[in-house]
Each structure stands twice: as C-alpha cells, then as structure tokens.
Specification:
The protein is α/β, with parallel strands linked by helices. The longest helix is centred in the last third of the chain and has 20 residues. A hairpin with a 2-residue loop joins β3 and β4. About 50% of the residues lie in helices and about 20% in strands. The protein has 2 domains: about 160 residues, P-loop containing nucleotide triphosphate hydrolases (Rossmann fold), CATH 3.40.50.300; about 80 residues, Helix Hairpins, CATH 1.10.287. The chain starts with a strand and ends with a helix. It is built from 12 helices and 9 strands. The relative contact order is 0.12. The model has no long low-confidence stretch (mean pLDDT about 95). It is globular, with a radius of gyration of 19 Å. The structure holds 3'-O-(N-methylanthraniloyl)guanosine-5'-diphosphate. 3'-O-(N-methylanthraniloyl)guanosine-5'-diphosphate binds next to α1 and α4.
Length: about 270
C-alpha cells in the first residue's frame, strides 16, 4: 500500500489537537521528537489507513528560535510530507496567515483548514469570503469547526482530491524590490538546492538565517555576491533584511484581508 504523509501545522490554540483527534480517533501513537521532550503524535486517518497523519508542534513562525519551530521547519524541509493541512483560526486571521505564508515559501503542498467558524459566526462582526481567500493565496480553503465536528468530511474530500491532482500554487509575491533580491539570490543557489525549495532558501539567506547559511555549500564568491545583494537592498529600504521580509509578509496579508474580510464594525463606523 502506498502511504501518504499528511502533516498538521498551525498556531498554538488554532484547534490542531482537536482536529488531529477527530482525524485519527483512537489510532494514535505518542512518542518524542528526537533530542527534545516535545510530544510527537501521529496516527492513521480514521477509515483510511493509507494516510499517516503527523501532528506538528504549534508555532507562530518558521524562524529557528524555539525547539518547536526547528522541529517543524526541519520536518517540512527534510521529511517532505505529501500534504500539509494548515489549521488557521478564522477569528485571528492576520496572525495565523503569517505562518501560512512561511509554509508556502517552503513550497510544501498545502490545504487551509479555516477553523473556529462557529466562533466567527457567533462573534457576528466579521465574515470571510472563502473563494477570494483561496483565489488570492492560490490554495484550497475548507471552513470547519473542529469543536462541533462540522465539515470534516469536506476537508477529508479535499485532502483526497489534492492527492490525485497535486496543488501547484504560485508563491506569494512581495514588494518588487525584495522580489528582485530574492531572484538574484536564487540565481546564486540554483545548482545547490532543489527547485521547489529555492525560494525558501533564498529568503532565509536574505534574512541571514545562520542554520540555512551553514546548510548550503556556498563558495566565497557566492557568499560575497549574496552579501552585496542584501546590503544593497537594505540601503534601498533603509531597514534590516529580516524586518524587510517581516513587513513584506504583513503587507501581503493586509492586501488579502482587505480583499477577503468584511468587517461590519467598519461599516457602522463609516455610517456614523
Ligand atoms: C479549550 N470552535 C471553537 N469554538 N473552539 C474550538 C474549535 C472550534 O472549531 N476548535 C478547537 N477549539 P486545541 P491546539 C477550552 O480547550 O485543539 C477550542 O493548541 C477549555 N479547555 O476546544 O487544544 C478547543 O492544539 C476551556 O479549547 O488547539 C480548545 O492548536 C474553555 O480551542 C481550544 C474554553 O484547541 C484550543 C476552551 C479546558
């Protein structure tokens, strides 16, 4: 039997554990991630044991600062899951999409499971246009309530559809001045890194991520060239490279929210 590796990723408190329990039922195995005392939970998908579901630690970012972040990013980049479900808390879209964008940067096939839809409805002031969200991000979006077990079947159908028709999304594009720096760095590493991961490595090199710097065998000329690209771009933005990237992600998210979210409070205020 060919196994499909399906990983769950998301912010802490996005409802990942609740969804994992529904997807796997009692078919769970709990161990530890190597070298750390962080629980590693995995299990077979209920009613279809050709899917191995891997729960990943809850995180806000793929930066290399906490064990949870390192485990998650190494898993995405080294174990190459066939599919990732990104559990997004619909009531905290901005913050949750920050992780989503970073997962997209790694080139991993992704489905967004927009959770807490019951809570969003109850709050009553915001609504999300799912079609636009999916269009703007270029990934499938399925709205669910893990707590109320709503639309889980739709999510599973989407997982199975995506397996037969792998998703080929376009990467989120940031400020054109940053994009040109990323393109130039990508040209330096194109023979060293597999194509789907080149954008991730280029962005991380731009951010001066040490782990990634150490992971690639760059020669001195390449290091110098990349350093020059980073310094030139920092001058253009009058900002440090890592914060240029953070701002570019939040700008992109602001555009997505602007297109996809209707906030009735804004409307009330504009009428008064
Ligand atoms: C408590 N809707 C709503 N309304 N809540 C949800 C949903 C949903 O779709 N999905 C999950 N939750 P985790 P991580 C709790 O535990 O799965 C709730 O960190 C409480 N506990 O029930 O643990 C879920 O794995 C007491 O809430 O998330 C849980 O990603 C009072 O979101 C919380 C209130 O879910 C986090 C809530 C003793």
């Amino acid at each position: 039997m060919t196994m499909t590796d399906l990983a769950l990723i998301g912010n802490p408190n996005s409802g990942k554990t609740t969804l994992f329990n529904i997807l796997t039922g009692t078919n769970q195995h709990v161990g530890n991630w190597p070298g750390v005392t962080i629980d590693r939970k995995s299990g077979k998908l209920k009613h279809d044991d050709s899917y191995n579901v891997q729960d990943l630690p809850g995180i806000y970012s793929l930066s290399p600062y906490s064990s949870e972040e390192i485990i998650t990013r190494n898993y995405l980049l080294q174990s190459h899951p066939d599919q990732v479900i990104d559990v997004v808390d619909a009531t905290n879209l901005e913050r949750n999409l920050y992780l989503t964008l970073q997962v997209m940067e790694t080139g991993t096939p992704l489905i967004i499971s927009l959770n807490m839809m019951d809570l969003l409805k109850k709050q009553g002031n915001r609504s999300i246009n799912l079609k636009k969200l999916s269009y703007m991000l270029g990934v499938p979006v399925v709205s669910i309530s893990a707590l109320r077990k709503q639309h889980i079947d739709k999510l599973i159908n989407q997982v199975k559809t995506a397996k037969d028709h792998p998703i080929n999304y376009t990467y989120p594009k940031y400020d054109s001045r940053l994009e040109s720096a990323i393109d130039m760095i990508t040209a330096q590493i194109k023979d060293l890194v597999p194509e789907p991961q080149q954008r991730w490595f280029a962005i991380k090199l731009f951010e001066r991520d040490e782990d990634i710097n150490n992971a690639i065998d760059l020669n001195d000329a390449q290091k110098q060239e990349i350093n020059g690209i980073i310094q030139d771009t920092e001058k253009i933005f009058d900002d440090l490279s890592d914060s240029i990237v953070v701002n570019a992600r939040y700008d992109f998210i602001a555009r997505v929210i602007n297109m996809c979210v209707v906030d009735s409070n804004d409307f009330t205020e504009s009428m008064s």
